[in-house]
Amino acid sequence: MSRVRNIALATGLLAFAGAGLSFPFFFVTSKNKPVIDSSKPLPPQATFRGPYINTGSRDIGPDPTTYPKL
């Protein structure tokens, strides 16, 4: 009974791992409608959030400090 149970468990784990690893490929190749429909106006949450979405990513240019190689 133990051997049959181990084989069933291993098969289940392999099937679960295979499904999890293949999901991104099926998701990318599926021909679903786009996530954002450009023919419709943006919802109020998106218009409010828009200006603030990149506020923390300011580029201040290259780092003037030279770092010695270790």
Helix content: 40-55%
| Average residue-wise pLDDT | 77
Count of separate DSSP helical elements: 2
**Form type:** flat
Order of helices and strands: HH
Structural class: mainly alpha
Distance between the termini: 59 Å
Describe the oligomeric state of these chains in a short phrase.
single chain
Question: Major sheet, described briefly?
Answer: none
The total of beta strands comes to 0
Given as residue ranges, the uncertain stretches (5+ residues, pLDDT < 50) are none
Strand content: under 5%
| Rg, Å, rounded | 25 Å
Helix and strand layout, with pairings?
Layout: H1 2-29, H2 44-49
Describe what you observe in this structure:
The protein has 2 helices and no strands. By secondary structure, the protein is mainly α. The chain has a domain at about 1-30. The protein is flat. It starts with a helix and ends in a 21-residue tail after the last helix.
Key features of this structure:
mainly alpha; 70 residues
In short:
By secondary structure, the protein is mostly helical. The protein is built from two helices and no strands. The protein has helices at 2-29, 44-49.
